[in-house]
Specification:
Blueprint (H helix, E strand, L loop, with lengths): L3 E10 L2 E11 L5 E5 L5 H9 L6 E6 L2 E2 L14 E4 L11 H7 L5 H10 L15 H13 L5 E5 L7 H16 L4 E5 L3 H7 L2 E6 L2 E6 L1 H6 L4 H5 L5 E4 L7 E4 L4 E4 L6 E10 L4 E7 L2 E7 L9 E6 L8 E2 L1
Length: 319
Amino acid sequence: MTLLEVKGISKKQNGQWIVKDISFTQEPLQKIAIAGATGSGKTSLLKMIAGLLQPDEGEIRLDDRKVIGPNDQLIPGHKKIAYLSQYFELRNNYRVNELLEMNNKIDEAIAEKIYSVCRISHLLQRKTDALSGGERQRIVLAGLLTTSPELLLLDEPFSNLDMMHKQVIKSVIEDIGTQLSITCIMVSHDAADILSWADRILVMKDGQIIQDASPKAVYHQPVNEYAAGLFGAYNLMNDLSGNGKQVILRPEQFLITSENNGFIIGEVKKKTFLGNHYMLVVATGTGLIQVSINDDTIKAGDKIHLNINTENEPLNGID
């Protein structure tokens, strides 16, 4: 069953394609994340799906009904699609419950569940100008959810949040799917949050989708260096099979081994503590590589021998 269908969507701005010929489908409750560098077209795509930006070409359908763009209706947007902008606004000098009740047309029990899921039940009597940024975001989100959307679009929901509020909104987004049964698409530049949340990731570059795969695939088998760099540190090395291609290896794919088993010899130039692991910069005969370890005894200046763990993740050659 298909909930959302995007067919050949394109959009020009100032004579340049900002989104070009994008097509994909989404099933109910499937969690899709869209990743890409700034200017890759992520937000423009999200706004077209929401019916807030008019595509120049293509069509978007929700429940097999066309999503109408702003050029074809008086009030932009789709009643069954909620869009949480990264530049959300909340009116000041209102109590939270007053503000939420203005547009609330759902049963009180359902509303209370939404407030609970959004972690705002304790804020309902608070004035809106006495809230933190994370609290304001969750109240805006709760207001969107009271419209009973089938699809929720989240544009950079973790930006400008401290760690505490970020963890709260992550839990909220997870519960929106599991407890409220609302399908979500998320745009984010935060690799860790995308990888842990999504069922499927669309990687965008220059307005096009260059990879459409599972989180595990986009992390361990990125199509190119651009895609690899979006999801953390990586090393680009010559393929051991000698086929002329290069392979992308994550720092944790290296294993420190004995002199007899190692095929890469290097000297540790730098060691950085990153909380749950250390990152080494190792000088080898072909250049510097990054290696992730948990061993506290290795230090700068040490000579180490490395092998590659390909047991669970095969090497991914790129042209």
